[in-house]
Amino acid sequence: MATIHLYLVRHGQTELNAAGRLQGIYDSQLTKNGVRSAQGLARMLADVHFDAAYTSDLGRAQQTTRIITALHPELKKPTIDVGLREFNFGGLEGTKNWWIVNQVRKQLGPGTFVKLVLSKERFATLLWVFNSLDKTRGAETLVGVTDRISRALRRISLFEAQDGRDKNVLIVSHGLVLSAFLYQISPRELPARLLKNTSVSRVDYQERQFKLVDINITPKRRA
Questions:
Q1: What pTM value is reported for the model?
Q2: Cα four-point dihedral sign 104, 109, 114, 120
Q3: Which residues are marked as active site?
Q4: Which residue among 43, 72, 146, 210 has its CA within the 20 to 30 Å range from the CA of 222?
């Protein structure tokens, strides 16, 4: 039975990331720091022979993909997959992160707020917060985004496993949607601050099961 080794990459830092604003289906270019970090990740993954590459349809993910695949002449043109796009924040798109935090503090009180931040269910709570604050009711739910990304990664894995060979597959996507997937398969391993920009997490797909190998690994900064 073939094993598909998925390399799940979060894109580099963007202008909206640096400004501390929610960025789902909204898009922005990588910052200079984001480009440098993506180049560092590319060097870190340079020795991995990739059999295929898939990327979200959003520009920041495609920009990161181009930087990584520049060091992989073995790869054909990456496949764009809408299923890999970021969580939709609905009416909260572009909102300042600090505004979200302040609203939750006001609604819950400082004591309850701290308990939720420290709880094992903090990721599920975070997505509940987005839904409760979005007056347009356009924000995705935890169930919705988890189902979307799981179906996309399962579909990709099954397609790549058709010829019975083990493969390394590059997946460039986004912080919240990848966190939702990793939260489903291994909730205790998901970092409190979720996934860093230009981090890579490794998941193996074998016999229709996903297994976490590594999570949130980032390239070392050069002195």
A1: 0.94
A2: negative
A3: 11, 86
A4: 72
